[in-house]
Specification:
With about 140 residues, the protein is an alpha/beta fold. It has helices at about 5-10, 15-25, 35-45, 85-95, 115-125, and strands spanning about 55-60, 60-70, 70-80, 100-110, 135-140. The model has no long low-confidence stretch (mean pLDDT about 85). The chain has a 5-stranded mixed β-sheet, with helices on both faces. The longest helix has 15 residues, at about 35-45. Helix content is about 45%, strand content about 25%. The radius of gyration is 14 Å and the shape is globular.
Length: about 140
């Protein structure tokens, strides 16, 4: 990652910097959510060489797949294709409500369009899309 990207993360757009890196990430031979998590962890660790990347970050009841620099949580969901998976994701996001940082929901594999629509409606209903810079950002890979 270049100097401008580091400054972007540290000073004005932490989520934007991470989303930009996710867009450049090329996972290989990933079949499960855990495979994607390991691949993304290694990629971000290399890209953010002087920033702490934490796997399975936990604070109280909150548990996230990845934490970047103490500012951004990444919650991965592979094949969001059932109501049960959506409800589990909504439950996880609800636990992040009191956390002051920001959240990226990274959808990998196949995503059912109606479930994505419901997820976006939930985020809107919570008011997480109205905040300056949004509390929750959804991206797909």
């Amino acid at each position: 990652m270049g100097l401008l990207d580091k400054l972007k993360f540290q000073l004005w757009d932490d989520v934007g910097a991470v989303v930009d890196l996710i867009a450049k990430w090329r996972p290989r031979k990933c079949e499960t959510e855990k495979d994607f998590e390991k691949s993304l962890y290694a990629y971000l660790h290399e890209a953010f060489e002087d920033t702490q990347i934490t796997k399975q970050f936990a604070q109280g009841r909150m548990r996230a797949d990845l934490m970047v620099g103490g500012k951004v949580i990444i919650e991965l969901k592979h094949n969001l294709d059932s109501t049960a998976k959506l409800q589990r994701l909504i439950g996880q996001l609800s636990q992040y409500d009191s956390w002051k940082g920001r959240v990226i929901v990274l959808l990998t594999g196949e995503t059912e369009p109606n479930l994505l629509k419901e997820l976006k409606q939930f985020i809107r209903k919570q008011g997480w899309d109205d905040l300056d810079g949004e509390k929750v950002t959804i991206t797909q890979k």
